[in-house]
Design brief:
182 residues, alpha+beta, globular, 8-stranded mixed β-sheet, binds coenzyme A
Length: 182
Amino acid sequence: MIELDDLILRRFDREADLSELHQVIEESREHLRPWMSWVDEHSLERTAAFLERREEAWAAGRDFTCAIVLNGAMVGACQLFRREGGPVDVLEIGYWLHPAATGRGVATRAARALVGQAFRFPGVDHVEISHDPANLASGAVAARLGFTEHGRRRTETGGEDLVWRLTRRQADPGGREDERTG
Ligand SMILES: CC(C)(COP(=O)(O)OP(=O)(O)OC[C@H]1O[C@@H](n2cnc3c(N)ncnc32)[C@H](O)[C@@H]1OP(=O)(O)O)[C@@H](O)C(=O)NCCC(=O)NCCS
């Protein structure tokens, strides 16, 4: 669990969070639809299956998905994960918010905290954020955190994502690695 004053990032509880997460997604459907195709299939059963998979993936160390809780209310989710078949020195970050929680820096603060967590894994050299190039709000989060545009990646659906990258050195230019060697 990460506590940042009014903001908490915490692991989902498969049973206790089912109803609230379902409701938050339900209320966010129109806002998420352009960028997250899974909302078209949204249902209580799908949300339950999502929470079950997250629990397994967390246990396997592949995916750390957290509820974003603002002043006690769930307002979205963020995810630190390793892409399936991806290189071991890269972790990725994803996020979404209820529309009422946007415009206040919540996603930026959550993603910043996940960057910090990512670089606690010693083998991680860089963190990536990828999104539809038209998703300017998502890119703005990456830019605010000092990520730079790295390139494009083909998506499973045949489209193309814009990939942003932040290296360990960019995140911590005067880091411990430099102190040891410098
Ligand atoms: C992507 C998404 C999470 C970004 O939300 P957001 O509200 O723009 O991002 P933040 O929560 O970081 O808030 C940033 C805004 O708050 C403002 N802000 C206020 N206080 C701030 C602070 N302390 N730190 C950063 N920004 C702050 C910023 O100026 C910015 O406002 P602006 O958009 O008018 O410039 C949101 O648009 C979303 O849920 N989209 C749908 C799902 C999605 O696309 N997810 C990403 C898929 S790759």
